[in-house]
C-alpha cells in the first residue's frame, strides 16, 4: 500500500490505492479544510505536493482553483487519488520547508556527462524528502540556473540556495556564477537567492578523499 507523508509534522499513513487524499490526511489525524465536503467547489483543501506522482489535474480542478484564486502550483487534496507514495504539506500545518536547493555544475554538450549530478540530486532527495532539489548547468546545457530559479519561484519557494559543484575557484566560480545569482535576485526581489560556498571549500573534502583512498587500498586503513 502507498504511504502518504505529511510535512512538517512527519506523520505518515498507509492507505489503499485510489484513496482520496483528503481521507488519507484525516486518517493521519491532521486537519484539512473542506467546507464543500470534498466537492471540488471551495478549494480550501489546497496542498503542496512535495514528492511523488499524482493524478493529472482535471479541468474541474483547474476551474475551482481559478475561481477561488488558488495558485497554480497547489493541488486540491479532494481531487487527488493516492496511487503511489506521496509527500504533501499545507500552509496551515506549520512551517514547511520553503527552500529549494540547486546543484549546479559547468555543463557539457554530452548528456551522459550529467549523470553524476542527477545521481547526487537523487541521493539528496532520498535523505531530505522535504527539500526540493534541482540541478542546473552554468553553460552548454539545459536547464540553466535562470530557468531553474524561475521554476522555484513559480512553485512558491521563499529561498533558493545554489550549491556550486566546483573544486577550483576559477573565473566561473568567482565571476560568472555570482553574476547569474545576482541577476536572479534582481529579477525576483521577493525571493532570497543565496550562493553557497563551493564543494571544494568544504572541510569534509579531505575525509572524502581519504575514504576513497581506503576503498582503493584497504591496507592503508589505520
Properties at a glance:
four-stranded parallel β-sheet, Ubiquitin-like (UB roll), five-stranded mixed β-sheet, Rossmann fold, globular, 2 domains, 222 residues, alpha/beta
Structural commentary:
- Strand 1 and strand 2 form a beta hairpin.
- Helices cover 31% and strands 22% of the residues.
- The protein is α/β, with parallel strands linked by helices.
- The model has no long low-confidence stretch (mean pLDDT 88).
- The N and C termini lie far apart (46 Å).
List the helices and strands and how they pair.
Layout: E1 3-7, E2 11-14, E3 19-20, H1 21-27, E4 46-51, H2 59-67, E5 75-76, E6 81-82, E7 86-89, E8 99-105, H3 115-127, E9 132-137, H4 145-154, E10 159-164, H5 171-187, E11 192-195, H6 205-216
Parallel strand pairs: 1-7, 8-9, 8-10, 10-11
Antiparallel strand pairs: 1-2, 3-6, 4-5, 4-7
Given as residue ranges, the uncertain stretches (5+ residues, pLDDT < 50) are none
Number of DSSP E strands: 11
CATH topology of the largest domain: Rossmann fold
* Corresponding CATH architecture of the largest domain: 3-Layer(aba) Sandwich
What structural class should be given to the helix and strand makeup?
A: alpha/beta
Mean pLDDT level: 88
Number of helices: 6
Strand residue percentage: 15-25%
Write down the Rg.
21 Å
Instruction: Indicate the overall shape.
Output: globular
Distance between the termini: 46 Å
The biggest sheet amounts to: 5 strands, mixed
CATH class of the largest domain: Alpha Beta
